[in-house]
Design brief:
Its cofactor is Fe(3+). By secondary structure, this protein is mostly beta strands. Helix content is 0%, strand content 15%. The protein has strands spanning 4-6, 12-13, 49-51. It starts with a strand and ends with a strand. Bound molecules: zinc ion.
Length: 52
């Protein structure tokens, strides 16, 4: 699965790690993230992320 990078702050979403602090289990692809998910560092939405 592809990693995605936040265009605003440089945070990298790694599907292998997920985002457990925000209820996203390891193994969750970027596409499978809920639309309500936001960058855990700066709070922008998924549309601000690019494939790394
Ligand atoms: Zn960010």
């Amino acid at each position: 699965m592809e990693k995605y990078i936040c265009n605003a702050c440089g945070y990298i979403y790694d599907p292998a790690a997920g985002d457990p602090d925000n209820g996203i289990a390891p193994g969750t692809s970027f596409a499978a993230l809920p639309d309500s998910w936001v960058c855990p560092l700066c709070g922008v939405g998924k549309d601000m992320f690019s494939e790394e």
